[in-house]
Specification:
By secondary structure, this protein is an alpha/beta fold. The chain is 31% helix and 15% strand. The protein has helices at residues 9-26, 58-71, 97-104, 126-139, 176-182, 201-206, 220-228, 261-269, and strands spanning 2-6, 48-51, 79-82, 84-86, 116-117, 145-148, 170-173, 195-198, 209-214, 246-251. The structure holds 2-amino-2-deoxy-6-O-phosphono-alpha-D-glucopyranose. 2-amino-2-deoxy-6-O-phosphono-alpha-D-glucopyranose binds next to helix 5.
Length: 277
């Protein structure tokens, strides 16, 4: 696991966007780099991104939109999978995660129609939808780079504390803490759905590169638990410690509770430029 401590949230967004850009520019059939092949799926397939919602990746999405608009970064050959989705929101609800990703990112890029897929929170047969979602990720060759935020209770996607570290896509019930955290996106706290469909921790672990973004003092304690605490289902994000290629990008405030902060800084400062994240 590489922990990168940066001066501010803008630097976190730029470095995350650099990692996405590097993947996207490697393009189709560029061959293996790092921990696995890009777009190992069907012939002609390109890079596969894993997209997160919540506020943590928003600045990264803004930076990717800017690079597309002003620097010609093309996403025409990219496919993407969402981490999770609320169950039971009306099809036109602006807080459906599919709608959020469309608004914040997809609508501004040159993605092909159907390139972005998320779990269907309105599916009549939820277990069948979850199995189909797992199969779709697999058919695409797996996720090359998965962006992640961290919930204040340590959740990844919507894998609440107690989630199996090997879980696959399934329905989950949100904790009161998460519903309260997410109430800011809804007119009334009661409107926050109780149920969600989320990629499991086992699903997330299959992505070849995990990039966790956390900024602000409110994330400091849970980041320290996830990065330096024990691996436990009580802190789902601690599962990152089991993955061979993880980048944890933090601003100073989110890094404040880390005991090995100076070591992480030394490692990053001395890193060869060719290595990337
Ligand atoms: C939601 C999302 C998570 C996200 C978390 C943190 O619950 N399902 O994917 O990581 O919120 O949100 P934020 O980035 O707003 O702190």
């Amino acid at each position: 696991m590489e922990v990168v401590i940066l001066p501010d949230p803008e630097s976190v967004a730029r470095l995350a966007a650099d990692a996405v850009e590097r993947l996207v520019r490697r393009g189709v059939g560029a061959g293996p780099e790092g921990s696995g092949p890009v777009g190992a799926g069907p012939v002609g397939a390109g890079p596969v991104l894993g997209l997160a919602t919540g506020s943590s990746p928003l600045a990264t999405y803004a930076e990717l939109r800017r690079r597309h608009r002003t620097e010609g970064l093309s996403f025409a050959h990219v496919r993407a999978f969402l981490l999770d989705e609320y169950v039971g929101l009306p099809a036109d609800h602006p807080q459906r995660y599919a709608a959020v990703i469309e608004r914040e990112l997809a609508a501004h890029l040159d993605l092909s129609p159907g390139a972005v897929r998320g779990p269907d929170g309105a599916a009549a047969d939820v277990p069948a939808e979850c199995a189909a979602y797992e199969a779709a990720i697999e058919e695409a060759g797996g996720v090359d780079l998965q962006l992640l935020g961290i919930g204040s209770d340590g959740h990844l996607g919507f894998n609440e504390p107690g989630s199996s570290l090997s879980s696959l896509t399934r329905i989950k019930t949100l904790t009161a803490v998460t519903r309260a955290d997410n109430a800011r996106f809804f007119a009334h706290a009661d409107e926050v759905p109780r149920h969600v469909i989320t990629q499991g921790l086992g699903t997330i672990r299959r992505a070849r590169h995990l990039v966790l973004l956390a900024t602000g003092a409110s994330k400091a304690a849970i980041v320290a638990d996830a990065v330096e605490g024990p691996v436990t289902a009580s802190c789902p994000a601690s599962v990152l410690q089991l993955h061979p290629h993880v980048s944890v990008l933090l601003d100073e405030a989110a890094a404040a509770d880390l005991t090995r902060a100076n070591y992480y800084r030394e490692v990053y400062t001395g890193k060869p430029a060719w290595q990337g994240l």
